[in-house]
Amino acid sequence: xxxxxxxxxxxxxxxxxxxxxxxxxxxxxxxxxxxxxxxxxxxxxxxxxxxxxxxxxxxxxxxxxxxxxxxxxxxxxxxxxxxxxxxxxxxxxxxxxxxxxxxxxxxxxxxxxxxxxxxxxxxxxxxxxxxxxxxxxx
Length: 138
Known about the structure:
Low-confidence stretches: none
Mean pLDDT: 80
Helix content: 25-40%
Strand order of the largest sheet: 3-1-4
Distance between the termini: 120 Å
Shape: elongated
Order of helices and strands: HEEHEHEE
Number of helices: 3
Radius of gyration: 38 Å
Structural class: alpha/beta
Number of strands: 5
């Protein structure tokens, strides 16, 4: 009878077993690279910051230049665009306010249906009103 307990043990690795061992170990070492996300949006404004509410009316054209351009309306539009781009103020549209008010008044007439009417008292008020005039256009 052979004494197996005193026999030396020879352990050999096959190339396939070696490959699988290295592959298994390297999977745990893989690192991920995350691309930093850069947002083009401005940072969120704190909730306690209240932007002033502004309305801009058409400017009066005192320049004497009145071919076919409406300078007063155009200059007011330029100012509104610039104010909106700053994102520091809230600008209310007042150019067609008369049309809106006429529609609300029409809805109060009994000739019109009751469904779909606008609730009165929901128009926003402006804290500041900007008026101006164009005196020179050269």
